[in-house]
Amino acid sequence: MIVMTPFVLLITFIVVQRIVELFVAKRNEIWMKQQGAVEFGEKHYKYMVLIHMMFFISLLTETLLLKREISPLWPVFLSLFALAQVVRIWVITSLGKFWNTKILVFANAKIVRKGPYRFLKHPNYMVVALELFAVPMLFSAYFTAILFTVLNIMILMIRIPIEEKALKTLTEYDDTFRDCHRFIPKIVK
What we know:
Strand order of the largest sheet: 1-2
Number of helices: 6
Distance between the termini: 55 Å
Radius of gyration: 18 Å
Low-confidence stretches: none
Number of strands: 2
Helix content: 55-70%
């Protein structure tokens, strides 16, 4: 009999969430490509997917094999995770059919500047960074937290410039986000 520990419950929630997101992303990708969207960054995408898959393997291995305990700071890390989920939903609903895990851009599209995009350029990447750190830290999986934070930074150093170049080439991205930072929220005008 499987005991539904906090770890199993959280991992199950995240895996189910990711599967649902992949279906939404695929549906949006099909629609966007039918409407003429151009895809960028195909070469690095497989590595990004690999990093996210390896994150789960590392987290499961470190937590279960090394018998990691829930962190004494679990309320902080759980709060960070919960905040990330709220922002994730805000991101997806703000972008609607334009939300995707791939870089798909319409020529001359109006850049979305609502929801969390009013405050920063890349809120979805901030959400992922928070999760890759907070979830392992919640279960004292320090190796996973550090390793995948570093790997995420490395892949974003490739992905974000490709995404921004695509948006600058095909849209008025620079004009739209002139007063906005990549990751530091703009709170006051």
